[in-house]
Amino acid sequence: MAKKSRNGKQGGTPATVALTGAGIPFTTHAYEHDPAAPSYGEEAAEALGVSPGQVFKTLVADIDGTLTVAVVPVSGSLDLKALAAAVGGKRAAMADPALAERTTGYVRGGISPLGQRKKLRTVLDASAEALATVCVSAGRRGLEIELSPKDLAALTGATFAPIGRA
Fold first, then answer.
1. Which of 13, 15, 82, 116 is deepest in the core (most CB within 10 A)?
2. CA-CA distance, 164 to 54, in Å (whole number)?
3. Residues 121-156: pLDDT tens digits?
4. Are 163 and 79 a contacting pair, CB within 8 Å?
5. Distance between CA 102 and CA 134 in Å, rounded?
């Protein structure tokens, strides 16, 4: 069962600190994370009682030697070619997990697009534009942030592009 908290009063992380500092409204949702869950994102959607199309996962890719953040619905997957095209790149691969953790400051399965140690270019799947709110990792497993996709894009400097596959 998920617990709600307005504006990060529960379980502060660099992501919630960044949102609070920017004055952006958000809600945190905490739930009991099962380490054996096959998909962290689908586990979050089920625990929060929302559609997997509203919960977005944060992935770090290497585009022509530059780390780039992709934020896509947990109900689908990342189209690496579309991500590369969205940022004007040619070659794309998933980033080394250890490098992604060191660069973002978060652990795999809990990487948030917000409050990262190093600001990376970010692309948000275009499907988010049609939603009133999206849920993304708050920076640790078992904690999600719900906010408007426009606010997420504004704080991360993200662009919207069709980078997800159903």
1. 15
2. 13
3. 999 999 999 999 999 999 988 899 999 999 999 999
4. yes
5. 26
Which structure tokens are listed for 95? 């980033």
Closest CA to 143 of 51, 9, 26, 11: 11
Question: Following DSSP, what letter does each residue of 89-121 receive, concatenated?
Answer: -S-EEEPPHHHHHHHHSS-TT---SSS-SS--E
Looking at this protein, which amino acid is placed at residue 21?
A: G
**How far apart, in whole angstroms, are the C-alpha atoms of residue 69 and residue 26?**
21
Q: How many CA atoms within 13 Å lie on the side-chain side of 86?
A: 25
pTM assigned to the model: 0.90
